[in-house]
Structures are given as structure tokens and as C-alpha cells.
Write a structure and sequence with these properties.
single chain; alpha+beta; Alpha-D-Glucose-1,6-Bisphosphate, Chain A, domain 4; ADP-ribosylglycohydrolase fold; two-stranded parallel ribbon; 17 helices
Length: 456
């Protein structure tokens, strides 16, 4: 039996003052009405709608924004059927840009028939769209159109694992950053609470800037990423910047070429490049695009250790996305052979020798500072424990180890989120994500990246 949706199950907005009235005429049997009353609670990012029945009306909300799009009022009839007597539609263009009444009627009919009644019905496609744009639009509107009952749903021809991993990666990293930043610099932390956060810092902010660059250009470009990072900096949207990244942005601000900005040498061996590198795992080939990866790293950190730190994160994500990390395997065992001889690799080797170490013991062995040779191996070691421990428990242990808590938790969050996907996050973790001020922007960026993956 499906779970009955209630208004309190999701973060929602009220229907705005500007609404339209649709000529949606439909009568449902008592059996259909019983199914309709169940509503739909989103279980994953691909579920685009939250639907619940209350006070004689069916309320249909977009799941990501919570915007109230449709309100359908039903009335019982003498023959034990249920008739639609009024249908309101959101006409606030800032919340819903569809303005065609006839199309809205078709879409409502589809949403109820497919999502609530589980019928195998055709999606009402806009006649203005052609080719691949049709698939992108359908996916943005209904995802995989999974109903709230156990019947098969029609999906777009796409490897869903990669899409789910991308969402999980972005969200997991943001949660790690937001929780970890609250505890950074605090002494004698005894426990980690997920209902208190500082918000995201440069770890997630620069990751989002990288994502925006990929969306705008349609591919990974070091020049484009550098421009987008500078744009964020000039708009005052970056916080907690490390010295190498700050120098690079100031260099770019006065006209330096991206390949010449930032620090080099031992002072450029921080984790500031690794913390923003994760989106590349979904759009480049880590085996053949190493020059491009180094260029993206070099924008802020011209250092071999920083570069190998980036490679380590990308290989970790690559093994997850390509489904090459199997149960019983060590993620570190897979990564080490791919890396050149560096201190990052040396610390991974130390952890490889003692796979039974606890996270705290690993921290004592190699350190947890912002130095990339400590931060990246430590974060990968902790993240691979996702096969046996909860996401939130691992993040808590990482933060309790001190050091660069926001970046370490964010790096591990990227990897763990990619491993479990959006559906793997507990309600506790998702509640924390909902507290992040930039939540809507993160989910929008995730949606646009997903559409880019579909059309690649």
C-alpha cells in the first residue's frame, strides 16, 4: 500500500494571488478516487511533483521549489463517482511560466492518470518542440514519470545511475560543507548536530561556479571556469577563500591570464582545487583528458600534489559512476595504481595497508589539515566506509576529527553522495539540505546539468 501524502510531508508554497481557472472536466470512479487521495510523495530527484489531497481538493506542487501549480476541487456524486468542479492554475510567471490553458488541462490529466492512477498514457508534448528538446522537456516536467503504485513506468533512454550520482554528488558535497563549516575551528567538539549549519562556503560555491561554466559553454573549459569564478568573486558570492584561490582571483581581476594566475610551488599544495573538481567527473574522461584536468586545477593551484589530489577525487567518482567499485573492494585499491608517485599517493598507500582503521585513527595517521596530501586521502578513506555506515554518521566522524572540517566533509560528501544517489539520503540529511539557503539554486543547477547529460 502506498504512503498517504500529507501537506506536512513537503516544503510547499501557497497558491499565489494571480491564478487562472481551467476548463478541466473529469469524473473519477470511487476506486480511482481512493488512489487519487493517496497523492504522491517524491522519493528521488526524478520525482518532479508533490501531490496531496486535503479538504476536497487535490494540491499539485513542483517538488523542487514547492510552488503550488494546480488545485483541483472534487465533489462526490449520487452514483458514488467524484467530479471535478473547479481547477485553479498558478499564473505567477515567476513561479510557473506555462501560460497555455489548453496545455495545462492536458498536463493535469496526464499527471493524475500517470502519477496517481498508474496508467500507461502518452505525455502531452508541446507542438513547439522538436528532436532532443522533446526528451529534455519531458524529463524536466515529469522525470521518469514513476507512479505512486507498483507498476512499470516509461523512462527516457539514459543511464540513470550517472544522473542520480551527479545529484547525489552535488547535494552530498553541499551538506558536508554546510555542516562542517559550523564546526571549523571549534575545540573539543563532542557531537555533531545536523540541524545547525553555517551555510555553504567556497567549497560548494566554487563547485557551483564550475557547474554554471559547464552549463553555459556545454563542455569543460578552463578559461570558462576561470571567468565564472571571477564573476562570482566580483559579485561577492564567495566566502572562506583560501590564500591560493584568493590570489588567483585577484590576479584574474586585474587582467591576468587564467594560466598565469594563482600560486605555484609548495604554497599551492592546498585542497582548494580538489574541492571544486567533482563536476568534471561527469563530463570528462579522466583517462584521456588529464591535460584539461590539470588546466582546471592550475587556475588556482599550480602544484603536482594539488593536481594529483584532483585526479584522486575524479578517479574515485569515476569508479562509482562507471560501476567499477564493487562490494568488498577498497576504493583506495582502485585509485592508487592510477596515480603518479606523490605524497598524496603515499598517504593513500598508508591507508591501504590498514583498511580496518577507524576514521579517527586514519586522521591521526595522516592528518586532516587543508594540505591536499592530508585532506584528499583522509576524505576518500572516510567516504569508502559508506558501504557499511550511514552518510550522516561518517560526516559526523570526519568533523569530530577536526582540521579542515568543511572541505573534508564536502569532499567525502561528494563521493558518498555519488555512491548512494539522491534516494540514499535519509530524511535527516535531506532536512539539513532543506535548511541551506542556496538549496533551490543547487537543485536548479543539478537539473540543468542533468539535461546537459541527456543531450550529450
Amino acid at each position: 500500500m502506498a504512503e498517504i501524502a500529507k501537506a506536512s510531508d513537503w516544503k510547499t508554497e501557497k497558491l499565489p494571488g494571480k491564478v487562472g481557472i481551467l476548463d478541466f472536466q473529469k469524473v473519477y470512479s470511487s476506486e480511482e478516487f481512493d488512489r487519487i487521495k493517496l497523492g504522491l510523495i517524491p522519493k528521488e530527484m526524478e520525482d518532479k511533483w508533490f501531490i496531496y489531497y486535503d479538504n476536497h481538493s487535490l494540491h499539485i506542487h513542483r517538488s523542487w521549489t514547492g510552488y503550488h501549480i494546480y488545485q483541483i476541487t472534487l465533489q462526490s456524486q449520487k452514483d458514488n463517482t467524484y467530479k471535478v468542479i473547479q481547477t485553479l492554475v498558478n499564473r505567477n510567471k515567476d513561479q510557473y511560466n506555462q501560460q497555455n490553458d489548453e496545455y495545462d488541462v492536458l498536463l493535469i490529466d496526464y499527471l493524475i492518470d500517470r502519477l496517481l492512477l498508474g496508467k500507461n498514457v502518452r505525455f502531452p508534448m508541446s507542438t513547439e518542440l522538436t528532436g532532443e528538446a522533446k526528451a529534455v522537456y519531458k524529463h524536466s516536467m515529469v522525470g521518469y514519470a514513476t507512479p505512486n503504485i507498483k507498476e512499470p513506468a516509461t523512462a527516457i533512454n539514459l543511464k540513470p545511475g550517472k544522473v542520480h550520482s551527479l545529484y547525489g554528488c552535488l547535494i552530498g558535497g553541499a551538506i558536508g560543507d554546510a555542516v562542517g563549516s559550523y564546526y571549523e575551528g571549534q575545540a573539543n567538539v563532542k557531537s555533531v548536530e545536523f540541524d545547525v549549519i553555517n551555510g555553504i562556503t567556497d567549497d560548494t560555491q566554487l563547485t557551483l561556479a564550475t557547474c554554471e561554466s559547464i552549463i553555459d559553454s556545454g563542455h569543460v573549459s578552463a578559461e570558462s571556469i576561470a571567468k565564472k569564478m571571477l564573476e562570482w568573486y566580483n559579485k561577492g558570492k564567495l566566502s572562506g577563500l583560501g590564500s591560493s584561490t584568493l590570489k588567483a582571483l585577484r590576479d584574474l581581476q586585474v587582467g591576468a591570464h587564467w594560466a598565469l594566475s594563482g600560486r605555484s610551488g609548495e604554497y599551492a599544495a592546498g585542497n582548494g582545487a580538489a574541492m571544486r573538481i567533482s563536476p568534471l567527473a561527469f563530463f570528462v574522461n579522466v583517462e584521456t583528458d588529464k591535460t584539461l584536468i590539470r588546466d582546471v586545477c592550475n587556475i588556482t593551484h599550480k602544484n603536482d600534489e594539488a593536481y594529483v589530489g584532483c585526479l584522486s577525487i575524479l578517479y574515485a567518482l569515476n569508479f562509482l559512476v562507471s560501476d567499477r567499485w564493487r562490494p568488498g573492494q577498497s576504493l583506495i585499491d582502485l585509485i592508487i595504481p592510477e596515480l603518479p608517485d606523490t605524497s598524496v599517493r603515499d598517504n593513500l598507500l598508508k591507508l591501504q595497508i590498514s583498511p580496518s582503521l577507524t576514521i579517527r585513527e586514519a586522521a591521526q595517521l595522516i592528518g586532516t589539515s587543508g594540505h591536499v596530501v592530508e585532506s584528499v586521502p583522509f576524505s576518500i578513506f572516510a567516504a569508502q566506509k559508506i558501504v557499511e555506515h550511514k552518510f550522516e554518521d561518517i560526516l559526523s566522524e570526519i568533523i569530530l576529527c577536526g582540521g579542515d572540517t568543511d572541505t573534508n566533509a564536502s569532499l567525502a560528501g561528494n563521493i558518498m553522495g555519488a555512491a548512494i544517489g539522491f534516494t540514499g539520503f535519509s530524511s535527516k540529511v535531506l532536512a539539513t539540505f532543506n535548511k541551506i539557503r542556496e538549496r533551490d539554486h543547487i537543485t536548479r543547477i543539478g537539473n540543468e546539468l542533468m539535461q546537459l547529460l541527456i543531450t550529450k
